[in-house]
Amino acid sequence: MVSPAASSSSPRRSRGLAYLLVYVLLLACRVPAAAGVDSEFEDGISPKFPGCDNPFQKVKVMYWVGDDERSSLTGITARFGEMLPVTGTDSEKRKAVVPAPKTSCAKSSAPLASSIAVAERGECTFLEKAKTAESGGAAALLLINDEDDLQKMVCTQNDTVPDIAIPVVMVSQSAGRKILSGMDGGAKVDILMYAPEKPTFDGAIPFLWLMAVGCVACASVWSFVVVGDEDKNAPTLGGEENDDSEIVELKTKTALVFIVTSSLVLLFLFFFKSTWSAWLLVVLFCLSGLQGLHYVASTLIVRACERCREAKVTLPVLGNVTVVTLVILPLALIFVVVWAVHQNSPFAWVGQDLMGICMMILVLQVVHMPNIKVATALLVSAFMYDIFWVFISPFIFKKSVMITVARGSDEGPSLPMVLKMPKEFDTWNGYDMIGFGDILFPGLLVAFSFRYDRAHGKDLTDGYFLCLMIGYAFGLSCTYVGLYLMKSGQPALLYLVPSTLGTIVTLGARRGELSQLWNAKV
Question: For residues 484 and 482, what is the distance between their CA atoms, to the nearest angstrom?
Fold first, then answer.
């Protein structure tokens, strides 16, 4: 939390805040570049034969309670059954009916003719449910899963060739509860389902790329260009004078702490997904965002107004407080509160991105990577962490742990530790995202390269900073190319670590400065 108390205790508070920022942002929230639903369900393992060889389709489930249209839900089609149309105009709104029994494993006593049967999972196979619903006259079957995720509805080698002529769709448990709650008291619920195709071009990615690259560049040069390295009177975390003791210098053992802590947090979020844990992350994000907004705004104002840095007032209990802090802090607090209240609004991403960028600029001023020995330990650990929890964890936990956590739940707030950009050309109106860790981890190395160049009198032509910025931009580009080609969630560090750490190690070796970079302290 921002505290404008006297400067005697500021370093201690700032150091504690810095550690909070590091562990919340660097360790707890590792989010892959995107979490693709379509590709995750194309397993290529389940048997395919005529009547059970449909591609899995991502389904938009629209529903109305009475005449009130609710937010659309996401579903997935089965290997069998009729394919859904790609546009809503080609589909038909139908009444939702819960069969009796509600699992649709026996002939329904409730009339299903021309309706969408909304059944629960369990007691019999997916095929049996579909056959029963179809024989009762249902126009489609909407199956509610027994967990907050989507399940592949496939055939087995022992199944006879199915002849299902109705669409079969599954939604998650939380999505199903929304539909069922709308039917409470006998209210009429209508459902319309279709499977829109994804556009070839994703216009949000270039803007997200610019935000990430620009954030790394700005944060790396901020202390020199905005604050001024020689300026020891610039406002810092507590609104007081600068102090070298506020810098948190990473150690080699941080790599081990990262692996253990972040893995435990990730497993906790995977096994105990709950609304309260999501809100805890939102609160931490708000506190960190408040600090970031205050720091960035204060340093910009002091840079533009030389006299503002000296203006202070004495307040009871708080002691000496800079006027800049007294003005900026309440405004930043209002901004954060408004975002927290309206975080589900269509334009909330603007506030989230602004707070996130300011927060990351602050973190890269407070946290320093002293040499590439520490960089190698930290980035290689993060690299292996991403590989394991995205690609290897499905063999242990039956699904990708990191992508499952990144996708979040239909209930409660979404995880805010990402920069996001709306997909304006996508029917799903979703977001492209990049996790803070994919900016901060390489950003620590890029910021080190800038400090190293200045300490050794290097410029852009013979230094390391420009090369690492190009490497980061190239690595991030490769991430999105991989996302497009593989059509699944990509751990960005898979590309960013080789393109940044590999670049500085290769250049250092060629210039004969690798030993100096390895043992530097800047």
Answer: 5
Element holding 313 (H helix, E strand): strand 312-315
CB 211 within 8 A of CB 421: yes
Q: Are residues 356 and 475 in the same domain?
A: yes
CA angle (55, 61, 66) in 5-degree steps: 155
Per DSSP, what are the bridge partners of residue 368? 249
364: its two tokens: 């890269």
- Beta strands (DSSP E) in 337-388 are 367-368
User: Hey, which residues are catalytic here?
Assistant: 386, 438
Nearest Cα to Cα of residue 226 among 301, 303, 291: 303
Q: Does the pTM exceed 0.85?
A: no
Closest CA to 61 of 152, 134, 142: 142
Residue 331: CA count within 13 A, CB half-sphere: 12
Q: Give the whole-number percent of the chain exceeding pLDDT 70.
A: 85
Residue with tokens 């607090």: 333
Would strands 58-65 and 367-368 be described as parallel, antiparallel, or unpaired?
A: unpaired
Q: Which amino acid appears at position 421 of this protein? A: M
Q: Are 67 and 189 in contact (CB under 8 A)?
A: no
Residues of the chain with pLDDT under 50: 1-15, 26-29, 31-40, 42, 44, 230-242
Residue 148: strand, helix, or coil: coil
Is the omega angle on the peptide bond into residue 413 within 30 degrees of 0, that is, cis? no
* Other CB atoms within 10 A of residue 349 CB: 19
Two tokens, residue 163 = 């002849």
Exposure string over 418-444, b if 16+ CB within 10 A, otherwise e: bbbbbbeebbeeebbbbbbbbbbbbbb
Q: Name the domain count of the chain.
A: 2
Task: State both tokens at 469.
Answer: 């910025």
Could you report the per-residue pLDDT of 277-302, keeping only the tens digit for each? 778 888 889 998 999 999 999 999 98
Q: Are residues 362 and 408 in the same domain?
A: yes
Do 188 and 211 share a domain, yes or no? Answer: no
- Is 157 in the same domain as 268? no
23 within a domain of the structure (yes/no): no
Backbone phi and psi for residue 420, each to the nearest 5 degrees, phi listed first = -140, 155
